[in-house]
Amino acid sequence: MRILIVEDESKTSAYLKKGLSENGFVVDTAAEGKTGFLLTQQNEYDLVILDVMLPGKDGWTVLADIRRSGKETPVLFLTAKDSVQDRVKGLELGADDYLVKPFAFSELLARVRTILRRGPVRQPDVIRIGDLVIDLPGHKAVRGGINLELTSKEFSLLALLARRAGEVLSRTLIADQVWGMNFDSDTNVVDVAVRRLRGKVDDPFEKKLIKTIRGVGYTLDHE
Ligand code: CA
Description:
Shape: elongated
Strand content: 15-25%
Strand order of the largest sheet: 2-1-3-4-5
Number of helices: 8
Largest sheet: 5 strands, parallel
Helix content: 40-55%
Order of helices and strands: EHEHEHEHEHEEEEHEHHEE
Number of strands: 12
Distance between the termini: 39 Å
Bound molecules: calcium ion
């Protein structure tokens, strides 16, 4: 079981890491939100322990980013605040539990075990954006009831855009995630693939979902 701790207080972070490691968990740490979020995209964690007050990107934003990226990794919030409002906000954003500082390590460990017992990470199987339905395990995409005949690369590209709907993805990121290669020198490959994908996903329909963000990359949304 692999756990990520995102906590800027080095003492707390070290104390949690030591305790969890002693209990058999593999533990990574990040001291700020941005790094924490990046680690959740690079590695598969069974749980993220997330401090609310962090320099730069705060815990709320990190959780929202994780959920927007399509990941359902369980999140346990740590916070010094104990207002009802914070609790509601955390749970609305998709936190799995909430622990108020200061807490005993035994209390944290009990919460961690409860969350992990709920089962494996829940990944969404089907993504719906407007009239577009993407069946991830079935490798099928349907729009307006019409089955889209996509090649496997086109499907991967569409799935990536859909998992991170509303987010602008750079050509470099797309090349890396879809082709697993560094296309820095030739991001034209991405443009060609997006053009082909548009021909199937957008051209036959009035509402266009794939948008070009000039100088940056592409985004898929239903605004
Ligand atoms: Ca903090």
